[in-house]
Every structure is written in structure tokens, then in C-alpha cells.
Amino acid sequence: MKLFQKTQRFCTLSLAALVLLGNSSFTSGNHPQRPQKSEKPNIILIMSDDMGYSDIGCFGGEIETPNLDKLAAGGVRFTQFYNGARCCPSRVSLMTGLYPHQAGIGHMTNPNENFEQHDYHVPGYRGEMSPQTHTLAEVLKTAGYTTLMAGKWHLGMEQKTQWPLQRGFDRFYGILDGASNYFQPAPPRGITLNNENISTQDPHYYTTDAFTDHAIQFIDENHQQKSGQPFFLYLAYNAPHWPLQAPKEVIDKYRNRYREGWTKLREERYQRMKQMGLVDANWALSKQDIFNWDTLPPEKQDEMALRRAIYAAQVDRMDQNIGKLVAYLKKNKLYDNTLIVFINDNGACAEGGDLGGGKKENLETKVGFFLSYGKGWANASNTPYREYKHWVHEGGISSPFIAHWPAKIPQQLNGSLIHHYSFLPDMMATFVDISGARYSSNKNGKAVPSPVGNSFAPLLSGINQPIHKQAIFWEHEGNKAVRLGDYKAVMTWEEGKTHQWELYNIRQDRTEQHDLATTMPQKLKSMAAAWQQWADTHQVRPWEQMLDSLRANERRQ
């Protein structure tokens, strides 16, 4: 598969080796730079929650996402952008430019209901973002940016020192915890405005709409009051994370779409993704990870089709809101010099079992919290890859990625696919690169870990070279992986079982169907050793130890 590629959906690509988009400014300085109003781009980082790799239209999905599709057609897509396998480890890696364990969230964030649950009393597993880190907001302030956030935080909430405004954001509207009711968010998983918890009284309230409205309000305030000052917006939707909740008129669009089941949906997507160039024709579709749809009785098929329809409606509504944001940018002449990046935080979610969790009676109501669509549909959402959120096979860590920036991405690249791989810590490096911001090596007189990512700005300009020549790593709940060049070693952890490394050539077999562990033992040995060295130096602990700590915390409740 070519490393830069046009899909059949978009026009022909002409590669050019162009100048880089900015100058990297990783320094040890502590003093903010004076903003340069005319050159610095606005930056909007949009993150969806628990969405599958192939759910949106421009990544092969059938869900109506015309606004994201237009951003892809006018920008670029990365086919190999990697997340951290789970909500808060991904978010802390994104926010700090570090591996999750370096930043204190090697497992999960402490929830509102129990602030001790995920504090395992070792540095890499404290259940909150370490104060001895820099956030994207803090760093971009050194370049004169107004910093705005709307949506899901999930990086610590026990003390206000952990909240967004205390970690560099000028404005915040959203949820501090990891999930909430979409229609009626209420304490302890309610809505926070800046530093105050507020109630929602609007009978038509819906979190996806509210997050977008406040994001636009915050940008408009900056535009009106600080004309010319660049802004950074982090718009972190909770869609389509459970609970399955969406407005009826959007659900109705998909009510009958999924009655043929997940097997047919996977095959349709797989064929479409091959035609679009997202999937190499030589990669086999991964094995279906659940029983056949036809084995379900008709009434269960009806329920499962509805669950999937609501999920699709959540994605659809998010896309509608992204369109609303784009329309505002265009109207106010902010569109051309705004870098918009869209990503997702982890692979599709199989939580709730094969057929989903939560009472079917709560579907299409405004009540309920844990309502999910199950493993069968998650398998389809991650077409064509293996596994899900929590795991570090490709289905768990692969995100759809769109970058759109009319002022800097050459028109010749519009609609193109970039197959060089990138991962979440690259966001810090890239934003520093294009903004001229400074990442200090210390904070409050103490050392701060150096960022582990590399700027992907050269890829946006047409430089056809990989940005990672060193290995990148994962660990979550004992699941391990290391990627170096074309090869990936990966291991699944399961309590009480012997764990074996697997080895895959991702260029030839990204669906991870042909394990090379026995045919390339020396390659596997070197990659496993590299993973262990990384773990030993990045605050990673054996999952068995952390699981003992988790259970001890639960017994103390």
C-alpha cells in the first residue's frame, strides 16, 4: 500500500516536498512569548468517545457524516493513528504529550463516586493527571493562545486543582467524569461551567448540542474581545459513549437500517474500505467475534437493531454539530487559518457483553445510565480489525484521524490518505511546532518529563517520510504492544492464563491474522526486550500487582 494515497472518493494526488509548517520550539524557558497575531493558526481538536474505526463515512461507514466527510475531502486522513486503548489513558497522553503512566493514569481516573478507587499509590497509577506535567493548554498559553474546552474531561476531579481551569484552560463547559446521561446530566455526573457545578433546566437539553453551543460561544467571545488572538479549542464529545441516547428524529433515520445484522454490515464496510484505499486488498477481514445474527429470535433482533440505530444517531448528531461549528468559523472568516483535527479516544466498546448492557425498556427514554450496544456491533464498528477498547490489537488502538487546514495543507493533498503511523503524544509536538509555543523542562522548580511524540506537521505539508524511527509502546490492564516500523508485537493479558507475545507485519497483515512469533523469534525477542526496557523506565507496573491494589481498594469501600 502506498504511503500517500488518494481514494476513489476524492481527486488525484500530486506529491510535493514542501516547507514544514512551523518551527519546533521545545526549550527550557519559562517565559511566555509575545503572540504574533497574524501568523499563528487557531487550533481545534475534536475527540469522539468510544467510536469505532470505520463508523464515519470517510472511513467506510454507512452513518451519515457529511461534515466530517467534507473536512476529509478538504484535508487529509491518517489511516494509522493510534490511541491509548481506553478513555482516560488516551486523554492524559493527548493532553500531556507523554505515555499515560508517566502522567499518573496508567489505568483509570478516580470516579466521582469513589476518589480512592484507582489510586494504587505508585507514581504511574494515581488515578489523576500528575500536577508535575504540562498540558496542551498550559503550553499553548506561552504562544499567546486563548484556551477553551467543552465536553468530557476525565483527567481528575476530586480537587479543583485537577480541573480544566487550573490546568491551563480559560473557559470550560462540560462533564468532569467519564460518562453522563445525555438528556439529564445530574450530580455526581453533572455539568460544570468553569469552576462551578450547574444544573440543566432546558427540556430539550442534549450534551452534544450543549458542548458545541458553548464551544462556539467561547470562540465568539475571544473573537469579539481579543481580535486577532489565536485560540485553542478542545472539543471532547461524549458521543457515542454509552448510555445509548439520542433525539428521536435522528434515531428514526436508522430505525430499519440494521435489521440485517452485524455480519452483513462488516462485509459491506470491508468492501467499501478496500475501494476507498483504507484497507489493503491483501488483508483478510478478521474473524467474526460473535455468533451469527440469524441465531437471535426476531424480538431480540429488533432490540439489537434499535440499539445500533441509537448509536448511529449519536454519531450523526455529533457530525451535525461539527457542521454547526464549521459554519460559524466560515461566517466569521476563521476557517482558513484554523487547523481542525478529529480523532477518537479508543476502539469501539464491547462493554456490556455480547448483546449490550442496560434494560431494553430504557431505550428511547431520557432515563438510564449504562445502556450499551454490545460486542456484536462493536465488532462491526471496528471493521476490519481485531479486539476492542481495553485491548491493544489494532481494533483497540486505531483511531480515524482527519486534519483540515486550508491555509497550510496544500490543495494537492486534499482528500489524500497518509499511511505513516502517528500516535497521541504527537499532538503536543505538532501543536508546539506550528504555534511557536514553549515546552519547559521544569515546573515549580522540578523536572517535567520530556515529550515522547514527534510533530506530524511535515506529513500535512506533503513530506513523504515516517515521523517515527523509534519504537512506540502500549500497556493497559496487562495488554501490551510495541510498534517499530512495519512490525508490531502484541500480547493479551487474561488472569490465570499464560501470556504469549504475538508478532505481525502490519504493512502486510494489519488485521493481525498471521502470527510470525515462531518464524521470526529473534525479531520478537528484540521487540519484547524493548517493551520491557520501556516499561522499566516509564512507571509501568505488572498488572497483577495493580489488580491486587484495585481489589484492596474495592474491599475498603
From TrEMBL:
<dbReference type="InterPro" id="IPR024607">
    <property type="entry name" value="Sulfatase_CS"/>
</dbReference>
<keyword id="KW-0378">Hydrolase</keyword>
<keyword id="KW-0106">Calcium</keyword>
<dbReference type="Pfam" id="PF00884">
    <property type="entry name" value="Sulfatase"/>
</dbReference>
<dbReference type="GO" id="GO:0004065">
    <property type="term" value="F:arylsulfatase activity"/>
</dbReference>
<dbReference type="InterPro" id="IPR017850">
    <property type="entry name" value="Alkaline_phosphatase_core_sf"/>
</dbReference>
<protein>
    <submittedName>
        <fullName>Arylsulfatase</fullName>
    </submittedName>
</protein>
<dbReference type="GO" id="GO:0046872">
    <property type="term" value="F:metal ion binding"/>
</dbReference>
<keyword id="KW-0479">Metal-binding</keyword>
<keyword id="KW-0732">Signal</keyword>
<feature type="signal peptide">
    <location>
        <begin position="1"/>
        <end position="29"/>
    </location>
</feature>
<feature type="domain" description="Sulfatase N-terminal">
    <location>
        <begin position="41"/>
        <end position="430"/>
    </location>
</feature>
<dbReference type="InterPro" id="IPR050738">
    <property type="entry name" value="Sulfatase"/>
</dbReference>
<comment type="similarity">
    <text>Belongs to the sulfatase family.</text>
</comment>
<dbReference type="InterPro" id="IPR000917">
    <property type="entry name" value="Sulfatase_N"/>
</dbReference>
